[in-house]
Amino acid sequence: xxxVENFFIDESRLSFVTPVEGYxxxxxxxxxxxxxxxxxxxxxxxxxxxxxxxxxxxxxxxxFLGSMxxxxxxxxxxxxxxxxxxxxxxxxxxxxxxxxxxxxxVAFSWVVFANVTSLHFSSWAVILNAPLMGxxxxxxxxxxxxxxxxxGTISYHPTLFGLSILCGVGASAVTLLILxxxxxxxxxxxxxxxxxxxxxxxxxxSVHYIGMEAAVFIPDADCRFDLNQSQFWTALAVxxxxxxxxx
Length: 247
Hints:
The protein is mainly alpha-helical and 247 residues long. The protein has 8 helices and 6 strands; from the N terminus they run αβααββααββααβα.
């Protein structure tokens, strides 16, 4: 069966197989949201600096740095959220695909940063960039999911899959509307910056956790299980690296 045929779950298959269910490590779930929030807040700060600068070279530097922080923050939230999901299926992560998911996050962040800076938060900035941001987050997430290596397949419920993308686009639109209000009215208050960061972090988390809810883990007949595998130290390394990048 091809990847495309496997992507969305065929409900008739569930009559013959039993999907594997896991549970979440709550501290890691909380940590995933916090890293997304701090990355988003830093990104808002860089956008503010970009708008305050009149030197094009400095704007390019700020755009690059902001997209690096936002992209790695988005990915760190995603990967920490993946590690927070405790499944008994023995699994590892494909390194090239994992790196690709990081690059996708950074690339989409750069495009959105560049557009928002050049369009000065016009109505077109929201219309063009909300879907772009939401689709970028979703692309990073589902490529990251595909990087999981296990003796089984991952399929998705179509409704929840679509909902994850819509939530990402919707929360991204709210974020951009708040940012547009900040910059068109020149109201650079901490409260508004925190609101924008909260909604952007919500966009990232909604795509990830709704996408995880959409996922159905179907083991192969010879699937290996490991009830003692722990991803704590890996998650700690990811979070620590992300914090250093943000700082």
